[in-house]
Design a protein that fits this description.
Elements lengths: L8 E11 L8 E11 L3 H14 L3 H8 E5 L2 E2 L2 E2 L4 H8 L4 H13 L1 H5 L1
Antiparallel strand pairs: 1-2, 2-3, 4-5
Length: 115
């Protein structure tokens, strides 16, 4: 069955590693959370992709255009709301922006990721 989903957004997992805090020299910590991505049709996706290529946009500039919310993001044990300021702090973590953009591309073609 082919079901056309017209919801404006969808959730997708994001995973990446970043340097550990504290005195754990050389250690990496695995981070996993979920991002709600805007659901782009083919034309809108192609337009975004063309703009990324034309302007050579960095991941940090792409994320605010594709991300609408997040889950499983915490600060000091408390859930951190998705705001422009909190998103900016999250994107300061090495690897976070690239992981979010990669998850977005992967969500557009999950079958390609399996090959």
């Amino acid at each position: 069955m082919f079901k056309i989903d017209k919801t404006p957004a969808y959730w997708w997992p994001v995973k990446f590693q970043a340097p550990a805090d504290g005195d754990q020299a050389g250690a990496l910590v695995e981070h996993e959370f979920e991002v709600q991505f805007v659901r782009l049709g083919v034309e809108a996706f192609d337009a975004l992709n063309d703009e990324i290529m034309r302007k050579q946009l960095k991941d940090r500039a792409i994320v605010p255009r594709i991300a609408r919310d997040w889950r499983k993001v915490e600060d000091g044990g408390a859930s951190l709301p998705f705001t422009p300021q909190n998103l900016g702090h999250a994107l300061d973590v090495p690897g976070a922006a690239a992981a979010i953009v990669k998850a977005f591309w992967d969500s557009r073609s999950p079958a390609a990721e399996k090959n």
